[in-house]
Amino acid sequence: MTQYQTGELAKQCDVSIRTIQYYDRKGLLTSTKTEQNGRRVFDEQSKQDLEIILILKRFGFSLKDIKKITIEENKLKSVRSMIEQRALNIEHEIQRNQMLLSEIKQFKNYIDKDSQAPLNKLLETNQYVTNKGNMNILTRSIIYRVLPVAIVQYTALVTSVITRKWWPSVIVLPFLIAFAVYFTRFIYKHLMYVCPNCQEVFKPNIKFWLFASHTPKTRKLKCPNCCETSHCMAIGQKI
């Protein structure tokens, strides 16, 4: 029967000698002392046990759980049951981490990498990230205003195509222009911006705001407090 000294077994299974010695002390492996030099040796069964331990460790099982599995009569059944529970735990952990990652990314958007703002500004940032009520209300309000206009515009366009006449589109054009002006002022009125450098909340000049490069959540604006030009995060005001 093949026998392994501690170092040989460690090399075979790609673990440290201390790991094997620790598992041996915990009773997870079985070793015997040689008569010649008193060194501990492990047999082939111990090698298999170690490989199984490493698999279960990879699944995230504790040594206490692993020891429990080894004394169960129906060992694979126990492994299956514990794997199912472990899978559920991992899924929940992934969901929590995804939510945490989303929150971290939002904080990152509010804080510039070279920000000189004091640490207590983090409390205000936390309010912007966690309190999305005003932005949600604003978003719904925008949808309620845009949807009827989109329906009118689409209807006029379809009518023009079907009748091969442009007058339906021409008739609604002044209305669409008036709505565009109203809608622009509505958005401007209900948005403020947070400077990622100093955390100042401000409302920019409408001319600069209108022509500033932007994304759905930010605009490149000059902060009136620190005079830095940055992609400032939008926050909603009460409607």
UniProtKB/TrEMBL annotation:
InterPro entries: DNA-bd_dom_put_sf (IPR009061), MerR-type_HTH_dom (IPR000551), MerR_fam (IPR047057). The lineage of its organism: Bacteria, Bacillati, Bacillota, Bacilli, Bacillales. Pfam families: MerR_1. One of its GO terms (molecular function) is DNA-binding transcription factor activity. SMART domains: HTH_MERR. It comes from Staphylococcus shinii. The chain crosses the membrane at residues 142-160, 166-183. Residues 1-72 form the HTH merR-type domain. This is MerR family transcriptional regulator. CDD domains: HTH_TipAL-Mta. Keywords: DNA-binding, Membrane, Transmembrane, Transmembrane helix.
